Amino acid sequence: MTAPVIAVDGLDFVYPDGTAALEGIHLHVHRGERIALLGPNGAGKTTLVLHLNGIHLPQHGTVDVSGLRLDADSLMEIRRRVGIVFQDPDDQLFMTTVREDVEFGPRNLGLIGAELDRRVDRALAAVEVGDLADRPPSHLSFGQKRRVAIAGVLAMDPEIIILDEPTSNLDPASRRELTATLRSLDVTQMIVTHDLLYALELCERTVILDRGSIVADGPTRELLADTDLLERHRLALPAGVRLESRSGVAEVPKTEPEPRKNGFV
Amino acid sequence: MAGGHVHALFRHGDSALHRVAPQVKIVAAFGFVLAVVVTPREAFWAFGLYLATLAVLIAIAGLPPGYVARRMVVEIPFLIVAVLLPLFGSGDRIEVLGMSLSEQGLWDMWNLLAKATLGLLTAIVLGATTQVPDLLKGLDALHVPGVVTAIISFMVRYVDVILGEFSRMQVAMASRGHEVRSVMGWRPYAKTFGAMFVRTYERGERVYLAMASRGYSGTMPASLRVPAPAAQWVAAFGLVAAAWLVALLGWAQQ
């Protein structure tokens, strides 16, 4: 069996102020999987993600990416293998044109000339933004920015891409386009989100993180059908949506106006 | 908000000037402006020649006069200062339309007006025919240190984002009833600037994380310098040399 794309074993992380952010994390992600990472605010999702590409180095435990142990020496190669698409595309698109931005990563890897152009064109085409190449990022719509940010990561030719809250601030049409894009990409994916229905739509497998530990890891549909589990970890499906763990469809009952309790009119 | 204040300087076109390599245009503009600045103010004919040269360049670039005029608006504060000079200047006074004006001040006004206008026109031609990313490439080709071009490029990239944040804060303040009735009403703005500083700093950290995630290790990737055709350098050199010749003739006349 080939090495998992991501193998995290016994990972602990304590912030300098003494706050324990991660405790005893074990997580294996295999090639071709698309997994959702769920958890309430402050659960440690971002801290975990920043370990996967070496922004944080493990204090205890290990992180391996396709068999390569993360340490100070392997940093650059790990960062090539693990691409992160951050939540605010304005943070990620820092160059003056789309093309220059997508070039940033491969050029850091030392690519130049025709090879660089090929890599960039392929990444732009994969998310269907080839026609935006010469635009400044400030002239793009939010959905376009998000896709260009993905292209910037794809151009690194990563083995896994991790998307932090990819649906936040997207209108429904952009969200649908993003779904199509993610489905079309032939790369292992991890989606960090609060959007449980999005996790259900895209990911077979879900991992729930709370207070620095993994509290559930299993098929998305089964975890999201477990109302108690969700409630214990401050997660919830949209009001009125209920999942049957076996059936294929989310049930949305007719909404009845609830009596107002909080006094707002 | 997302309109792009910086990029608005550029005017799309495919003129001969648009096609000149950015480094050539930067050097030519700089050399030309220097010549204008050193020209003695008494040499009216020299300024006329400079203006004629710029008019030709504006025509070549295909910039409509109205467009150039609108871009000239930034000069107004300087004009106000210039107009005040003859009123408050020292030295001999002369009567003009019943007003007592300083002769020295009049010369200063003319000097400032002529040189600022010509300098601004040069900058307008450069900005209107060169996209901002190309300007950065031009600076890079002229071996301006990478740190400097990186700072300029980040400023260009984020000025709109930060102005957008600032205007959202203002809307949020206005939505909760904040009105500026007196100087005291400015207090929240001062606090906003503090908050803006913190936010910008935090954004800087996030941008850095995103850069590190894509393999940034302390130096921006060197850009691919495209050499400018020799003919362009020759033409630019000719223009600048002519301007300097005019400036020197101006001095020789003194």
Question: What would you note in describing this structure?
Answer:
The complex is a heterodimer of chains A (265) and B (254). With 265 residues, chain A is α/β, with parallel strands linked by helices. Chain A has a domain at 32-43 and 81-250: Rossmann fold (3-Layer(aba) Sandwich). In chain A, 34% of the residues lie in helices and 24% in strands. Chain A contains ten helices and twelve strands. In chain A, strands 6-7-8-3-9-10 form a six-stranded mixed β-sheet, sandwiched between helices. A four-stranded antiparallel β-sheet of chain A has the order 2-1-4-5, with helices on one face. The radius of gyration of chain A is 20 Å and the shape is globular. With 254 residues, chain B is mainly α. Chain B has two domains: 7-139 and 227-253, no CATH class; 144-213, no CATH class. Chain B has ten helices and two strands; from the N terminus they run αααααββααααα. In chain B, β1 and β2 (99-102) form a beta hairpin. The longest helix of chain B has 30 residues, at 146-175. At the A-B interface, α2, α3 and α4 of A face α7, α8 and α9 of B.
Question: How would you summarize this macromolecular structure in one to three sentences?
Answer:
Chain A has 265 residues and is an alpha/beta fold. Chain A is built from 10 helices and 12 strands. A 6-stranded mixed β-sheet of chain A has the order 6-7-8-3-9-10, with helices on both faces. In chain A, strands 2-1-4-5 form a 4-stranded antiparallel β-sheet, covered by helices on one side. A two-stranded antiparallel ribbon of chain A has the order 11-12.
- Poorly predicted runs of chain A are none
Kindly state the percentage of residues in helix of chain B: 55-70%
Domain tally of chain B? 2
Considering residues with a beta carbon less than 8 A from a beta carbon on another chain, report the largest interface and each chain's count: A-B, 33 and 27 residues
SS-derived structural category of chain B: mainly alpha
Largest sheet of chain B: 2 strands, antiparallel
Strand order of the largest sheet of chain B: 1-2
The SSE order of chain A reads EEEHEEHEHHHHEHEHEEHHEE
Report the β-strand fraction of chain B as a percent range: under 5%
User: What kind of assembly state do the chains in view correspond to?
Assistant: heterodimer
Q: How far is it from the N-terminal to the C-terminal residue of chain B, by CA? A: 52 Å
Secondary structure tally: strands of chain A: 12
Averaging pLDDT over every residue of chain B, what do you get?
87
Q: Which percent bin holds the helix content of chain A?
A: 25-40%
Q: What's the gyration radius of chain B in Å?
A: 23 Å
